[in-house]
């Protein structure tokens, strides 16, 4: 109960409402992507990315940082990235191009990383611990991820809105996504020390 009260204290902030809005955008994006409305799907992702940048600025400038916000903002990121990873994996996995078909499995790295972090965050909250806030590695990985996704939705094979005018070569797509995947792994590793510290303080402290 104490942990729940902590998250509900001062939760009515603009950044939290923005995070709720970003979460609501996820099924909208999924439906648009599934229906082939790629332009609108791209717009939704861009809006999600921009509001992700804005909510942090508002929270710091107007002192609207809350415990719920510390959980909600990364949750919105994780759910968005999981959705993107699943949809792009399915799209490229169905490609008749053998290279892009093989390349599709790279997206599982994002899926596994975000799924694992989401599960661990829920467990930490249940145990009365606080999921780690995004460090510089996490912020860089998220920024690059969104940048790469927008590039794919603009000019990538299979899903590019303007691919008929110019299509990114397969090797460029592979390199961009691979760089993002490596940064994602680095970000994941960077969260481990704080988790270990909290576990030690809570269960191993004499």
List keywords for this structure.
8 helices, 206 residues, Four Helix Bundle (Hemerythrin (Met), subunit A)
N-end to C-end Cα span = 25 Å
The helix fraction, in percent, is over 70%
Report the order of strands and helices. Answer: HHHHHHHH
Structural domain tally? 1
Structural class: mainly alpha
Largest sheet: none
> Any idea of the CATH class?
Mainly Alpha
- What is Rg? 18 Å
Q: Which architecture per CATH?
A: Up-down Bundle
The 3D shape can be described as globular
Within the CATH hierarchy, at the fold level, what is the topology? Four Helix Bundle (Hemerythrin (Met), subunit A)
What is the β-strand count? 0
**Uncertain regions spanning at least 5 consecutive residues:** none
Instruction: Note the beta-strand portion.
Output: under 5%
CATH superfamily: CDP-alcohol phosphotransferase transmembrane (TM) domain
Rounded average pLDDT: 85
Count of DSSP helices? 8
Task: Describe the model.
- This protein has 206 residues and is mostly helical.
- The chain has a single domain (2-204), classed as CDP-alcohol phosphotransferase transmembrane (TM) domain (Four Helix Bundle (Hemerythrin (Met), subunit A), Up-down Bundle).
- The protein is 78% helix and 0% strand.
- The protein contains 8 helices and no strands.
- It has helices spanning 2-8, 14-34, 38-61, 67-93, 98-103, 107-126, 136-155, 170-204.
């Amino acid at each position: 109960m104490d942990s729940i009260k902590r998250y509900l204290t001062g939760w009515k902030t603009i950044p939290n409402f923005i995070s709720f809005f970003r979460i609501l955008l996820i099924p909208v994006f999924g439906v648009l992507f599934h229906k082939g409305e790629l332009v609108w799907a791209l717009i939704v992702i861009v809006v999600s990315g921009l509001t992700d940048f804005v909510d942090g600025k508002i929270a710091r400038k107007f002192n609207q940082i809350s415990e719920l916000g510390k959980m909600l903002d990364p949750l919105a990121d994780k759910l968005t990235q999981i959705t993107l990873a699943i949809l792009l994996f399915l799209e490229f996995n169905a490609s008749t191009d053998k290279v892009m078909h093989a390349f599709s499995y790279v997206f599982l790295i994002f899926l596994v990383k975000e799924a694992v972090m989401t599960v661990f965050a829920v467990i930490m909250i249940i145990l009365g611990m606080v999921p780690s806030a995004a460090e510089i590695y996490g912020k860089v990985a998220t920024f690059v991820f969104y940048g790469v996704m927008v590039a794919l939705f603009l000019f990538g094979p299979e899903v590019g809105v303007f691919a008929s005018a110019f299509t990114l070569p397969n090797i460029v797509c592979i390199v961009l996504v691979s760089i993002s995947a490596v940064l994602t792994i680095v970000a994941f590793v960077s969260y481990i020390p704080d988790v270990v510290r909290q576990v030690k303080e809570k269960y191993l402290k004499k």
